[in-house]
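Extended Data, panel c. Modelled sequence:
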Amino acid sequence: MYLFLRYIIMKLMKAIILSLLLIPLVGLSQQKEVYYANNIYKLTTANKTELKAYLKTLNKGTALTITGHTDIHGDADYNLALSERRANRVADFLKAEGFTNLSIDFKGETEIQYRTMYKNRRDSLSTSGPVKPIPPVIEEEVVEETEGPKFADLLTEDRIHLENIAFYPGTPNFLHRDPPRDLYELAEALKTHPKIKIEVAGHVCCVADEFLSEQRAKKVYEFLVGHGVPKERMTYKGYSNTQPLVPEISAENNQKNRRVEINITSRD
């Protein structure tokens, strides 16, 4: 009888200790990360699905802090503006879902936390509200949305601006270490439509530099050749700073004018 009572008491003590350990978990901060591709700030369908699953764990009045981040590639001012756009894009999505108690911060490249660079291209969402289990996300076949050129326009437009392809100031080097994803998609689109011929047009900002603009065009041209687009379907040319997209009144505008465009020369 004594041994039985001792066994029961020990069981009860373990249960009490376990319940006490679990109590603090109710008020812990719950964080969510939203990741982006190079130079992208638009939410993909997958991002939206994950965010909706996260929001189901929260009450509509929960206070949320959204902090935008970038990797270390590119100009610091540009990265700060990019992190702000990322945070604002998530805030717009949360407001549409009924969450309005929001605060926004943006850090640019100043808080690198991960050795793997893509994880630093993120928004961090945090709250100190009650934590509920996150329901599993049902995997669906989705088409990823991106900010960038609509390569279906190869069939209809005469000029296509490659929005996600940017360069370091004063160089023909891509703003990000790896070639932008849009270049791979452009190469595939051109191979899908073998009758289309193009001119790769390079541009610079701020001061006249025809040589640099030509080198930027050549950089894209050589990428396309290396990924299966025949040379005879393409030419490249530099236009210096003669065709700005936007007035050069800020670092962000200057970056937009350091660009490459695709001019359709023939569809026969």
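The mean pLDDT is 79. This feature is highlighted in the accompanying rendering.
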